[in-house]
Amino acid sequence: MTNAVAVHGVGTSHFGRQPERDLVALAWDAVHEAFTDAGVEEVDAVWVGTVFGPPGVAQRVLRAMGITGIPVITVENACASGTTAFAEAHEAVRTGRYERVLALGIEQMSTAFDGAITPEDTDPEGRTGLALPALYAMAAARYLHLGAATPEQLAAVSVKNHAHALHNPRAQYSGRYTVEEVLASRMIADPLTLLQCCPTSDGAAAAVLGPATGGSREVRVRGLALRSGVPWNHASPHVWGHDIVRDTAADALAAAGLADVADVDVLEVHDAFTIGEIVTTEALGLVKPGDGGAAAARGDTALGGAHPVNPSGGLLSRGHPLGATGLAQIAEITWQLRDEAGARQVEGARLGLVETMGGGVSVLDGNACVVVLLEAP
Amino acid sequence: MTNAVAVHGVGTSHFGRQPERDLVALAWDAVHEAFTDAGVEEVDAVWVGTVFGPPGVAQRVLRAMGITGIPVITVENACASGTTAFAEAHEAVRTGRYERVLALGIEQMSTAFDGAITPEDTDPEGRTGLALPALYAMAAARYLHLGAATPEQLAAVSVKNHAHALHNPRAQYSGRYTVEEVLASRMIADPLTLLQCCPTSDGAAAAVLGPATGGSREVRVRGLALRSGVPWNHASPHVWGHDIVRDTAADALAAAGLADVADVDVLEVHDAFTIGEIVTTEALGLVKPGDGGAAAARGDTALGGAHPVNPSGGLLSRGHPLGATGLAQIAEITWQLRDEAGARQVEGARLGLVETMGGGVSVLDGNACVVVLLEAP
């Protein structure tokens, strides 16, 4: 016997550089809001996603809220840590292991990093100082070389997501930029300029999951999938991250009983860099191969377009506190499917998709990818 | 529908200071042995327990063995990280989520630590420099003060476990020590001397789990439980770690349908410090309150005694690479229940117990505790 699973409540902290706050304070904001939203005062178990949180960080932040004595499991899966916590919480409710479960994502990066994350020096990329922006920049350079995107189309993703974030009071950054302003911002890793890279962020996000009972504010988990990467190198047919997203999305759509990703009304995807969103929309099958950049430039993926992507502002604008990101995406889609997203609401959204992928282990097409399909009450 | 779950194979690296080896090499030893032991060449998913492993370490060590493309989830739960990975792998097989799952524990401490692990400085213990040995020393001092143990009884645990380790070629340390020699070794945290403290260790351990099919070498998972700590302070009725072990063991015995821990033939428990084993045998209900030290001194918990504890040598002698420890305990009990433990074999052992607890978050009675009951083929 298995249960249909629903998101009963979500919450997040503000996102941004908040070195003066600690993880306890950030987690408090997210959990308090999620509990209030779900109308619960306790849960039966907790999964916590974090990448750079120190050992015991989950128990430490939960202790501060009086959440003790129940099973707590900390998971790490690169940028997909938060959505991995969500996937594990979902499985626990689905199988009846626990009735009500908290999935929490936490990360404080401003106190840990001065600049970009560098891969481990046991990997060739790490040894040569090839930080994450450079890995994405290589994908972007290949797109430009092949004519699969133009610099202006890369920039269009940043213009769109920063404009979306104007309507998201929790976002780290927002602004009405032009393509020219994005291209003129400081070069980080050619061809990716500053406004095409996600910022250093602190934040927390949470979701309370339980059995679906048909409640008027319950967002149902229609299906999800989790994968790790397979061998990949720079000579592969697709750029880094394409295949793992494509395959995870296919698994998730099958689990949800959906034939076509075009049926999805609103998406939050992993746009750590502008090229990331372009590759992802193509890998998801939302747009044709090589049309991701053009679709962004045409406004197809903007609010009001055919397939609105990252109405929250995405990682580029909302911020990317690694372990929290996946659950921030879940929170945004939950609000969208409940018609609670205010000025960034996608009208009539019934089906939503969350995609998070991340990694940086040499010769692998990503450490992990999670795709979740959520359905309106 | 749920499956009865069995351990199909186990493996470990050598344990000890091995800074010249890396986690890939250590993990290879453990996984290769476990796969060979189980007679399998692949698994459907992997849970990896580690405390200080860097982000992505699981994918990195698995990549080196060609284990890619399947779900991989890294978990952290202090000293119980390895047994938490085991508990999650067990749940996945029990519910039919995956058919065959690898639980892997990895830790390289010699390259990360010069001395004892200090709690986070956001906790009062951490701020005052109260490292883990000091936390255990306070429990030991209280036992001595109350007359619940003598210095000689504390030392007897070390004498016993180091003698057990003489028969374990994978152990970090072993030796025929006298009580006097243990007490005369260098003072680490009064009253705990060097030989009463687990060493800095590197190692890996693994188990392959799958449905129980009645195979002649399958060790069945009879029941298990996982808990996190509840509020505790130094004025509590019991010393740190007692209550969480007691309650987790009660859960595990209930899950296994066992009325009495005395039915267990062989145990591997968390003896990070001598006082830890004494508290644990009492909390498990194996010996009466206040009789843990005397039981060790009498030989009740030695090989040949009524309740052999830590035939492997335990953490004190085998070593304590945090994330690997729980699975090293699982491996030892698996060998014992298959009558494959050589000179340290507990004759006719039919029921075995693994207990791991750990933590160091202020005001909590441990971050986590896992108790597993295993049954002979």
Provide the CATH top-level class of chain A. Alpha Beta
Low-confidence segments of chain A, given as residue ranges, are none
CATH architecture of chain A: 3-Layer(aba) Sandwich
Q: Mind telling me the C-alpha Rg of chain A?
A: 19 Å
User: Which two chains touch over the largest interface?
Assistant: A-B, 42 and 42 residues
So, the CATH homologous superfamily of chain A?
Answer: Thiolase/Chalcone synthase
Indicate how many domains the architecture of chain A comprises. 1
GO molecular function, one term (chains A, B): acyltransferase activity, transferring groups other than amino-acyl groups
InterPro entries (chains A, B): Thiolase (IPR002155), Thiolase-like (IPR016039), Thiolase_C_2 (IPR055140), Thiolase_CS (IPR020613), Thiolase_N (IPR020616)
Protein name (chains A, B): propanoyl-CoA C-acyltransferase
Keywords (chains A, B): Lipid transport, Lipid-binding, Transferase, Transport
Notes on the structure:
The structure is a homodimer of 377-residue chains. By secondary structure, chain A is an alpha/beta fold. Chain A has one domain: 3-Layer(aba) Sandwich (Peroxisomal Thiolase, Chain A, domain 1), CATH 3.40.47. Chain A has twelve helices and eleven strands. In chain A, the strands form two sheets. The first copy, chain A, has a nine-stranded mixed β-sheet, sandwiched between helices. The first copy, chain A, has a two-stranded antiparallel sheet with strand order 5-6. The two termini of chain A are 23 Å apart. At the A-B interface, helix 2, strand 3 and helix 3 of A face helix 2, strand 3 and helix 3 of B. Chains A, B: Its EC number is 2.3.1.176. Chains A, B: This is propanoyl-CoA C-acyltransferase.
